[in-house]
């Protein structure tokens, strides 16, 4: 193999390893959704507590496309501790600019949003050793309507991420 090719392949290997490394990530998983997200569909993730000493940042990751027609996203979340105690929150996230353009990272119609869950205002610690369960479901409704939206279109994947603070 020519020396130039070896150098090129070595450089590509190191570059791909650099991109693949994510030193902050402790847990990062996604669940795919079939064309739409039903209001009764709860997406859940099980996370082993890394330790009880350090602070962590928790995120809800969301991938959506142009079929998502709303400027905000409402979610109901639950974080169940190993002892069974559960904290439930209703959260709102801005998903579009005033001109209607979807927020998030991505060059095509697929956008990725990293939404703060815990750790941005107050440090989050896993206070108990064991398995934590994070659950999330959408709580969307059309403007002016009382009943919730049965199926939310445009959300393709929901993820949960834990990072070192």
What would you say this structure looks like, in words?
It is a single chain. With about 160 residues, this protein is mainly beta. The chain has a single domain, classed as Jelly Rolls, CATH 2.60.120. It is built from one helix and ten strands. About 10% of the residues have low confidence.
Quick structural overview:
With 165 residues, the chain is mainly beta.
Using the 3D structure, state the CATH architecture. Answer: Sandwich
What's the domain count?
A: 1
Strand content: 35-45%
Give the structural class.
Answer: mainly beta
Radius of gyration: 19 Å
What descriptors fit this protein?
44% strand; Motility-assoc_lipoprot_GldH; Jelly Rolls; 165 residues; lipoprotein; signal; four-stranded antiparallel beta sheet
Write the topology of this structure.
Elements: H1 3-20, E1 25-32, E2 36-38, E3 43-48, E4 56-64, E5 72-80, E6 86-94, E7 111-118, E8 131-138, E9 151-153, E10 155-164
Antiparallel strand pairs: 1-10, 2-9, 3-8, 4-7, 4-10, 5-6, 5-8
